[in-house]
Amino acid sequence: MTAAPGVPAYRQAPGEPPSLVGSRCRGCGWISFPARPVCGGCGAEPTDEVPVGRSGRIRSSAVVHHAPIGFEPPYIVALVELEEGPIVFCPITGCPPEEGAAAPGTAVVLTVAPARPGGTPVFQFRPAHA
DSSP assignment, residue 120? Predict the structure, then answer.
């Protein structure tokens, strides 16, 4: 499992695509991301770690033109609904940073790379067609 402090974890075995580390409730089957020990749906314990987020669809996106120090604008951020159900906020790569490039409904796949030059690798999504 890999993660910077405060960043949700992902896994990537050699030769395998990356996946995010989520959890599934043993009681109701609710899937959460990031993984948590208590179910976000019914409050039951325990939960089991499961891989999630290899693919999803963009629900909403925006082009960032005024970025925090250390980040080069413009770039795209989005709400991505994972195939398993959870929704994540993350950068979108692999398409031009312009309005409409990451439209709602666009199929995306997980990738792991630094979000800024010299930064720690983090999870991101890119259009499935890229």
Answer: P
